[in-house]
Design goal:
By secondary structure, this protein is of the alpha/beta class. It is built from 8 helices and 10 strands.
C-alpha cells in the first residue's frame, strides 16, 4: 500500500513561496463556502487546513486514508475536529450528511474517481457543493506525483463531473506569464528533470532542488493562518479547449439531478453519525 505521508505537505516541510501561496489559495477559496455549514474534507492529510476551515463552519470532519497523517492531526487538534480514517471511494457517512465536501490535491490518487463522485452525491445535501483542486496536466511544467493514477485536463475534469451528474464551474489559478531569464532557466531545468525522472519522490527530497532553483523556502506551520501567503485570483475557464497557461485547476460542482437512485438504503444504520 502506498505511503502517502511521503508526498503530503506537512508542518515543518519547506516549500517555495509559490507553493505556500498555492496552499493558502486553496483554503482561502474554500473557507468562503463554509460559514454555518457542515463540512467534510476528504484527504485532509495532517489537517493543516482544518483549523482555518473550522473558524466559521457549523461542523467540520476531516478524513484521510493514511493513519500516520491522521495521528499527527489528532495530536495537534485533540478533540477540536473529528478525524476519521476513510476510503474516499466508500465514504462512511449517512446520506445527505454534509453541505460541503472538499478534495484538494488528491483526486489523482484515486483508482476509481467516479466512485468518489457517486459517494459525494450521496452524502451531499440537495444544495451541497463539492470543491476539487488539482494540478493542470496540460501545463508545460507538470510533474506527476508518485502513486498517482490519473490526472485531468480542464476538459476531462468537466466531462468526469458532468457524467456523474454534477453541474460544474471550472476555474484556473496561477497563470503563467512571460518570464524573466532566471525563471526561464529554472523552468527549463525543471522540465529536463521531469523528463529524465530525476526529481525526488518525497516532499523532503524535493527541498534541495527547490533551494537550488528557487532560492529561499518557507516552512509550513501546523495550521494555515490568515494571510500567511498571497491568495491568487481564480479565473473562470471554458472546458472547450486546452488551458496550458494555468498551473492549477479548480472545480466547483453541484449535484444536478435527484439522488434517490444512488442513496444507500441501509446506510442510515451502518454509517458514521457525525
Amino acid at each position: 500500500m502506498p505511503d502517502y505521508s511521503s508526498v503530503t505537505e506537512a508542518p515543518g516541510v519547506r516549500v517555495t513561496p509559490e507553493a505556500a501561496s498555492m496552499l493558502y489559495t486553496r483554503y482561502a477559496f474554500a473557507v468562503g463556502f463554509c460559514h454555518g455549514k457542515e463540512v467534510l474534507e476528504v484527504g485532509c492529510g495532517c489537517g493543516m487546513g482544518l483549523g482555518y476551515l473550522g473558524q466559521n463552519a457549523r461542523r467540520l470532519v476531516g478524513g484521510d486514508f493514511t493513519e500516520s497523517l491522521l495521528r499527527r492531526a489528532r495530536s495537534h487538534y485533540g478533540g477540536r475536529v473529528l478525524l476519521v480514517r476513510l476510503d474516499a471511494q466508500a465514504l462512511p457517512f449517512r446520506n445527505e450528511s454534509f453541505d460541503i465536501v472538499i478534495l484538494f490535491e488528491a483526486i489523482y490518487y484515486l483508482p476509481r474517481p467516479k466512485d468518489f463522485l457517486t459517494e459525494c452525491k450521496r452524502i451531499l445535501r440537495p444544495d451541497g457543493v463539492l470543491l476539487i483542486c488539482l494540478p493542470n496536466r496540460e501545463w508545460e511544467g507538470f510533474n506527476p506525483s508518485p502513486w498517482s493514477t490519473q490526472y485531468f485536463s480542464a476538459r476531462e475534469l468537466q466531462a468526469l463531473l458532468s457524467n456523474c451528474s454534477f453541474a460544474v464551474d471550472l476555474l484556473g489559478a496561477f497563470r503563467t506569464y512571460p518570464r524573466t531569464l532566471q525563471q526561464k532557466i529554472s523552468a527549463a531545468a525543471r522540465k529536463t528533470a521531469v523528463r529524465l525522472r530525476v526529481i525526488p519522490k518525497t516532499m523532503r527530497g524535493k527541498e534541495f532542488l527547490k533551494r537550488l532553483f528557487y532560492g529561499q523556502l518557507a516552512e509550513l506551520t501546523e495550521e494555515i493562518e490568515e494571510g500567511m501567503a498571497p491568495a491568487q485570483p481564480l479565473i473562470p475557464l471554458s472546458p472547450n479547449g486546452p488551458t496550458p497557461e494555468f498551473k492549477i485547476l479548480y472545480a466547483l460542482a453541484r449535484p444536478r439531478s435527484p439522488r434517490s437512485a444512488i442513496l444507500k438504503p441501509g446506510s442510515q444504520s451502518t454509517a458514521i453519525s457525525t
